Amino acid sequence: MKTIEKIRLSNFKKFEQFEVDFDSEMNILIGDNEAGKSSILTALDLALSGSRSKVDSAGIESLLNIDILARFFSEGARSVGKLPTMFVEIYLSDQGNPELNGKNNSLGKQCDGLRMVCAPMDEFGKEIADILAQPGENFPFEYYAVRFLTFADQPYSGYSKYIRHLLIDSSQINHEYATREYTKSMYGAHASALQKYKFQNEYRKHKTLFRTDILAELNDTLSDYKFTVRNNAKSNLETDLVITEGDIPIENKGKGKQCLIKTEFALKKNAGTYTLDAILLEEPENHLSHLNTKKLIQSIRESKTKQIFLATHSSLICTRLDLRKVVMLNSSSGIPLLLNGLSVGTADFFMKAPDNSVLEFILSKKVILVEGDAEFILMEAFYKKVTWGRTPEQDDVHVISVGGTSFKRYLELAKALEIKTAVIRDNDGDHQKNCIDSYSSFAGLGHVEVFADPSNARRTFEICMYEDNTAACDELFARGRKSLPVQDYMLKNKADAAFELLDKKEAVLATPPYIQKAIEWVRT
Known about the structure:
By secondary structure, the chain is α/β, with parallel strands linked by helices. About 40% of the residues lie in helices and about 20% in strands. The protein is built from 22 helices and 18 strands. β1 and β2 form a beta hairpin.
């Protein structure tokens, strides 16, 4: 199986310098907006394609890192020799191909690989110098050229196909060019070279027959001008092919169905000689219902013959496909974080657990974890009281309800990613055992703390709320009650009681002391 082991980027889009090692089967790219997920997929697509036209379509000006351009002008020395160079290096597993093997890479490493370099053209040095001498910040993008070289310093193009890949971008799912390129790629993956030559010849022959035999009926009635059909490089079998499901072209289906069909088709194992080695998926969850997202996940999990690179904002996808395959990208850093060190138990837990907020947690800087709906409903009101009117969002604090049994799973992520995390939980009648001893493996981290009421008598959130807000609770819940005490009512109707307190008594509610401490700690 041909696989991509590493990518190194220099001055490419948001990355001045970047590298990451890849898993041989699955790589799930997650991060905030503008963290670089799409940039990595774009880099892979351009370098693997060996296509100058793709680079020209993207535009050199959109590929060169804007910070390095700004620095070039700000430092003052506008010389041709100091113009920035951009490269994308793809390190491959051993292909047994001497055309790929060499040291033409930034690491000087003897290995297989591909290199895309974008640099000023030496032959236009005088023209470039004239542009740089002009006032203002006129950058000579037009004098940059792209080259595709193997690590053996051999040029390559799109015809080489050392790694056969396909990019599926759900945001372009209805774009005519993207659909045509997808169809062309899938046809190339499933048809052998002999079949393609044969089919193209037959297609051209039948076009000729249509012109001479069928259109003749009309053309014989015309004098100076005749009708014919296109029969050139821009109108051939590959441009005219469409993919169908149930005899319906997939471009006539809804966006969600198109996303699902295109991805499933690309993932299927090909019994023929040719197949795809790598599939790049850009937010495949777009346009998909929850059920179809689950179908897509199953298709991805069952694909064993292709290396997959997937950028997503979906907790469902990144957890069900295995958190240990996640590459975490931070918008303020060029250093990726890998979650391959997570325990098998935690990875399996998130695969099998009900829908969770793990991606929201991973992308957060500060988090308050609560174990129930009641605490979650009232937490923003508590936060505003403790902070004199500020909201959690203003302090970059996320409040997430995870259920008490999940705390340690999330804290393992917090430990790996150094996310400041406050756990707010019940002591369940034994503060020492449940809130101190149980979390001893996280003690001393500095960015993880567990907060619970120290009194074993105040074993749950509802008891604390009643004791700290007795008058408000009695006023709301005691009227007309014959048998069930107010505190017992609150314990049996946790979410409803919390919502009513928020709705009618928010202004007078007192925050339990352990929750106040948690809020004060997490925001510092």
